[in-house]
Amino acid sequence: MKKTVIFLLSVIQLCFCCMLPAFAKGESYHWYCVHAKDHVQPGIGGDIAFVEELDGYYIDRSHTDPTAEEKVIYLTFDAGYENGNVAKILDTLKAESVPAAFFVLEHLVTKNTDLIKRMTSEGHTVCNHTARHKDMSKCDSRAFLEELHAMEQIYESTVGEKLSSYYRPPEGKFSRENLVTAKENGYKTIFWSFAYPDWDNNKQMSPEKAKSIILDNAHNGEVMLLHPTSKTNALILGDVIKELKILGYRFGTLDELTKKE
User: How far apart are CA 86 and CA 100, in angstroms?
Assistant: First the structure.
């Protein structure tokens, strides 16, 4: 009996030890944000609430009232390549006089430099989405900074300007260490309070359904994430912007979102 008890205790101890690395790894997070209800700002899970303490932004806390006469939305795009739709998105933004932020990768900057220069010349903010779209939650501080600095250098040598100090984690994957390192190096991490499945070019939502989802979930202080490679987004963006303007929304910049009172 004594040997059996000792054996069971040993097995339990072994299982617990095998589980320790998983618990220790609890630094890896995947950003999520529930959709808004009744146009009220959505919340985030308590396990990732720390992002706001580390210069992470996903909502404008100074614009919260869904019934306010003036409401603001921050339009952001994650752009890794051009398929004809990014240029169409820029055409629409120019026609509607709306500023946006583009989080870009190395490929887009080197292969479509004229498009990037157009973004800056038309008043948009070009931001760091890392050079190669790696899972940054698996990177230590050194590897994390290598990706950010590589993107900075590629941008500066190709475009001839300095890249803005706004960063968005690829696929929304991050660690606390990522955010600490970003903050210590002058970066603000930009998440989002709305996104929808628009990234797969082979599974595009119908324009009517996509427009309905975007408008139904609009909320004051929203940081909207869209992918400019989406054919659907290229088709509906003009209508979406017009509708939001009718509803009293204006479009802000990341400098406004992240300003300190």
Answer: 12
